[in-house]
Amino acid sequence: MGTYSLTLREPLGRKLTIQEVDDNLLYLQDLAQCGGGSVNIDNNQIGFGSECGLTSSQFFTYDKEQGNLILGQCNQIIGGTFSIGNSGIISASSSHSIILGGGSNQIIANNSILSLLYSYRASYSAIIVGVENKISDSSPGSIIGGGSCNYISSGSFISGIIGGFKNQIYGSQMSMISSGFCNSILKSGCSSISSGACNYIYNSVASVINGGCCNDIYDSCGSSVLGGSCNFVYTSYSSIIGGQCNKVSCHSGESLIMGGLSNKVSYSFRSAIIGGNNNNIHCNSCNSVILGGHNLVLTNTCNTALTDNLFIAGSFSPDCGNHFGVNGSFTSGSNTITVCNGVIVSIC
């Protein structure tokens, strides 16, 4: 479409020239063909279409100074300011960021002391889609993929939440929550929660929770909880696999609980409980294991295996007087072995 303007006689106080009349006719001709004239595009809005079909929208904007692209309704990328004393003002940047869709999502460099601590504040971040998701407080290079009410804040740089509802990464670097509900990673690094509900990693490094509900890793390095519910790891390089209300606590590194209910390892390095209920390894019982059973306890006893009843397939020919961490009888092939206070007393 050519550039023509409509010229009126009255404001001029004279007759129109031949050129002005021709331009008026061309203007009316284009207007009739295209159904409109020129289009005014507000600042930062992106025009799309062609010729007389060109238009723009407040839900499709680009800030060329900050390098921010925003799509969707009520989405915001905001750079605030922080002041010191009467005159010191430092801009908190959210530049080179993008919101691709959804509604009421925000990437914000808040007016807080955290804006002074990191060079890039909330820059180079992205929210792909979803509702009421937020990246703020010096969390550059972070991403929220979707979901609702997910939050990355307080210096959580290069971190991500893929989806889910009310998941939070706070003060944690290079960490990720894949999905789920009300999962949190706080003051940690290189850690992740894959899914589940109300799982929590605090003050830990390179730790992971893979599903389950209300599982907790605290003050740990290289620890994991794989499923289950209400399981707790409060030491490094240890794991709980499934089960419920199991706990590996202080000074019990390189330990394991596999399944079961209410089993506990504490102050005992490199020890394990496999299954059972309410079993306990504690007080310097290192390199020990409890196999199943109920209410079994190892205290101040290292290099020990404890179980309730044991069946050993195949041949077995120990001498009387050998020590075993069991009481009662068990069978080995055709033999019945009786143990009293951990000592073999008869083989029949």
What key attributes describe this structure?
348 residues, UDP N-Acetylglucosamine Acyltransferase, domain 1, 4 domains, 15-stranded mixed beta sheet, 13-stranded parallel beta sheet, 34 strands
Describe the SSE topology.
Layout: H1 9-12, H2 18-34, E1 60-63, E2 68-71, E3 76-79, E4 81-84, E5 88-91, E6 98-99, E7 106-109, E8 126-127, E9 134-136, E10 143-144, E11 151-153, E12 160-161, E13 168-170, E14 176-177, E15 184-186, E16 192-193, E17 200-202, E18 208-210, E19 216-218, E20 224-226, E21 232-233, E22 239-241, E23 247-248, E24 256-258, E25 264-265, E26 272-274, E27 280-282, E28 289-291, E29 297-299, E30 305-307, E31 311-312, E32 328-332, E33 335-340, E34 343-347
Parallel strand pairs: 2-6, 3-7, 6-8, 7-9, 8-10, 9-11, 10-12, 11-13, 12-14, 13-15, 14-16, 15-17, 16-18, 17-19, 18-20, 19-21, 20-22, 21-23, 22-24, 23-25, 24-26, 25-27, 26-28, 27-29, 28-30, 31-32
Antiparallel strand pairs: 1-2, 4-5, 32-33, 33-34
Textual characterization of the structure:
The protein has helices at 9-12, 18-34; strands at 60-63, 68-71, 76-79, 81-84, 88-91, 98-99, 106-109, 126-127, 134-136, 143-144, 151-153, 160-161, 168-170, 176-177, 184-186, 192-193, 200-202, 208-210, 216-218, 224-226, 232-233, 239-241, 247-248, 256-258, 264-265, 272-274, 280-282, 289-291, 297-299, 305-307, 311-312, 328-332, 335-340, 343-347. With 348 residues, the chain is mostly beta strands. It folds into four domains: 1-38, no CATH class; 42-195, UDP N-Acetylglucosamine Acyltransferase, domain 1; 221-306; 312-347, no CATH class. The strands form four sheets. The protein has a 15-stranded mixed beta sheet with strand order 1-2-6-8-10-12-14-16-18-20-22-24-26-28-30, with no helix packed on it. Strands 3-7-9-11-13-15-17-19-21-23-25-27-29 form a 13-stranded parallel beta sheet, with no helix packed on it. Residues 80-92 and 113-117 have low confidence and may be disordered.
